[in-house]
Amino acid sequence: MEREFFAGFIKIHILYHAAEEEICGTDIAKELARHGYDVSPGTLYPTLHRLEKMGYLKRVDRIVEGRRRKYYRATLAGRRALETARKRIRELWEEVMEGA
């Protein structure tokens, strides 16, 4: 159940960081771990690919130290989705924390 709840949070984290700067899988995995998310490559990379397929991320491939790396940036649709998420998070936060 917990994994299901946090799957959406992970996507929002990815969109947030991809809107701020170009990200690669390795870097976003470290950032997510810093926030307490234990995301395996088998979960992270399909999530990045899904977000790209949905039009929320744009990928650029580069050769870095002889290896191909995929870098992602949020698209306009991704930025709009993030803004919608922010509004809903704010509303949820106010509702959940009202009685706290």
What does this structure look like?
The chain has 100 residues and is an alpha+beta fold. The chain has one domain (2-97): Winged helix-like DNA-binding domain superfamily/Winged helix DNA-binding domain (Arc Repressor Mutant, subunit A). The chain has helices at residues 2-20, 25-34, 41-53, 76-97; strands at 23-24, 57-64, 67-74. It has a 3-stranded antiparallel sheet. Strand 2 and strand 3 form a beta hairpin. Helix 1 packs across helix 4 (76-97). It is globular. The two termini are 23 Å apart. The relative contact order is 0.15.
Order of helices and strands: HEHHEEH
Mean pLDDT, nearest integer?
Answer: 92
Number of strands: 3
Instruction: Determine Rg (CA atoms, Å).
Output: 15 Å
Detail the poorly predicted runs. Answer: none
Content of β-strand: 15-25%
Structural class estimated from helices and strands:
alpha+beta
- CATH homologous superfamily - what is it? Winged helix-like DNA-binding domain superfamily/Winged helix DNA-binding domain
Summarize, please.
This protein has 100 residues and is of the alpha+beta class. The protein has 4 helices and 3 strands.
Q: Secondary-structure blueprint of this entry?
A:
Layout: H1 2-20, E1 23-24, H2 25-34, H3 41-53, E2 57-64, E3 67-74, H4 76-97
Antiparallel strand pairs: 1-3, 2-3
What descriptors fit this protein?
alpha+beta, 100 residues, Arc Repressor Mutant, subunit A
